[in-house]
Amino acid sequence: MKMLINGNFVDSKEKIDVVNPFNQDLIDQVPAGTPEDVKKAINSAYVMKNELKNFSARKISEALYACAVDLSDDLEEFAILISMETGKPINAARDEVKRSIDTIKLSSEESKRIYGETVPIDAGIGGKGFMAFTLKIPLGVLGAITPFNYPLNLAIHKIAPALAAKNTVVLKPSATAPLTALKMAEIINSHFPDGALNVVTGRGSIIGDELVKSEKIDKISFTGSVETGRMISQRAVMKKITLELGGNDPLIVLEDADIEKAVEATIRGSYLYTGQVCIAVKRLIVDDPVADDFVEMLLKETRKLKMGDPLSTKTDIGPLINENAAKVVERIVSNSLKDGAELLLGGTRNGNFFEPTVLDQVTSNMKVVQDETFGPISPIIRVNGIDEAINVANDTRYGLQASIFTENIRHALKAVQEIEAGSVMVNKQSTFRTDNMPFGGFKMSGMGKEGVKYAVEDMTRTKLAVLNTR
Ligand code: NAD
Predict the structure, then answer these.
(1) Same domain assignment for residues 80 and 200
(2) How many angstroms is it from 91 CA to the middle of ligand 1?
């Protein structure tokens, strides 16, 4: 596939192979873009912003809706492409496309709800005899950078709200999984003018800086790892920035929890897309009196998970994104065993595949729970009571989402108030997300919120008009 610059699909001499993580087949190649390509894409978006800002909200809304309809028509094709380029089990890939359609429809609706307000300016000294109101105007050009794990919906979470607010966009998708975003760009480009959306493929280390540092870019919206996010925030001087970064989400099971519900949620939360999800459940914090029962049920349910071909609807656990990622998980698990964790299930790597793994007797200082482990691992930390559970939950540099299982309303409310995370779920695992909710972490998990309404708000500027009525 080719890059999209100023409405043209353009190639380059050097290419990047896109490989299926399941069988290592070459799926396609994409251009290894250069800083020069990024400059051209930025210039195209920079010129088009003056045209797009004059589009009516009605026209923008209709164009977005048409994109959603086209994506619905091609749902299965998109799901297969996601599954092939990421190794995501097909059922989860279909869910991603359905959510992407929803994200675009929500953006289409939101584009009609961008309001300013009247300002009671005569309440201030010297304001008598004046009238004032604000306008919400577009920011200009959005630079969007996205990761491999949700290659469609995370790109849509930036592109659709940006267009809804009449901004133009330059997207840099992950070099590992760029195909779905390019296919989506074909749809968007058919309903918006050339230059409204540009997509440059390539390695972040080579083309990232041009995008992040350009004075023609008004905002950077980045989703990816803490390490890359930190680097970007240091370089994106004098522009708005949203960072959606890694997570290390806890799931607390208290003595008074419905254990069956908690186990079912753990299975969904720990193993969705083989654990390669920012909001996957990455730490199980379990009250000691119920820990043995919880572990027994968790082992029983984990044993039922089927590893295999991501394109089969029977597959729960696919490959990790590449062999190196699987080796990292292998190393983290073996180090935690050396540090005293007990292996109850799994623990073995086979190429890119890593078995669903349950570890008991984990402590907060182990690497498997200090860092973000991107794999199918359930590390269990045993605690005594809610206070210790919340302390352990907060003992991390991350704060994306969190969950607690309890039938006691006081415990639920205490957790909501005291856990340091962007969202706290009660009796639901942290992978819960709807595309209209405010989403974004605390601490090292990020800055700012996505979720259509919140992203649109952040992609506008407030301008004040003052009228002398005397
Ligand atoms: P990554 O940080 O390696 O890459 C993300 C993007 O940044 C890619 O497009 C990459 O090419 C680009 N990049 C790399 N170096 C760059 C540079 N110097 N300048 C500009 N761009 C650069 O992340 P990944 O491995 O693709 O994705 C996994 C990570 O993303 C995990 O940490 C996961 O938790 C996080 N993530 C967060 C969310 C969220 O919403 N909070 C959602 C999904 C994934």
Answers:
(1) yes
(2) 23
Kindly give the distance from the C-alpha atom of residue 276 to the centroid of ligand 1, in angstroms, as a whole number. Answer: 12
What's 12's domain CATH number? 3.40.605.10
> For 365-375, what is each residue's pLDDT tens digit?
999 999 999 99
CATH number of the domain that 357 lies in?
3.40.309.10
Does 280 share its domain with 184? no
Which atom from ligand 1 is nearest to the alpha carbon of 439? 40
279, 385: one domain: yes
pLDDT, tens digit, for every residue of 163-175? 999 999 999 999 9
DSSP string, 380-429: EEEESHHHHHHHHHHSSS--SEEEEE-S-HHHHHHHHHHS-SSEEEESS-
| Residue 105: closest CA among 404, 405, 434, 443 | 434
Q: What is the pLDDT of residues 55-79, one digit of tens each?
A: 999 999 999 999 999 999 999 999 9
Atom of ligand 1 nearest to the CA of 440: 41
Burial of 399 from C-beta contacts in 10 A (0-12 / 13-18 / 19+):
buried
Say yes or no: 300 and 234 in one domain: no
Which residue is closest in CA terms to ligand 1's atom 32? 225
pLDDT band at 10 (very low <50, low <70, confident <90, very high): very high
CA quadruple 222, 445, 291, 404: dihedral sign: negative
148 CA from centroid of ligand 1 (Å):
7
In-domain check, residue 439? no
Q: Residues 450, 353: one domain?
A: no
- pLDDT band at residue 179 under the 50/70/90 scheme: very high
Ligand 1-lining residues (CB < 6 angstroms): 145-150, 154, 172-175, 204-205, 208-209, 212, 223-225, 228, 231-232, 244-247, 278, 372, 400, 446
Query: 281-293, pLDDT tens digit by residue?
Result: 999 999 999 999 9
Q: Kindly give, in sequence order, each residue whose CB lies less than 8 Å from that of residue 291, ignoring residues fewer than 6 positions away.
A: 380, 382
> Looking at the 3D structure of the chain, how many domains does it have?
2
Distance from C-alpha of 361 to C-alpha of 364, rounded to nearest angstrom: 10
Tell me the average pLDDT across 399-405: 98
Catalytic residues: 244, 278
Q: Mean pLDDT, the chain, as a whole number?
A: 98
Report the residue among 30, 82, 225, 443 best suited for mutation to probe ligand 1: largest number of ligand atoms under 8 A from its CB: 225
Taking the centre of ligand 1 as the mean of its atom positions, its distance from the CA of residue 464, in whole angstroms, is 36
Look up the pTM and report it. 0.98
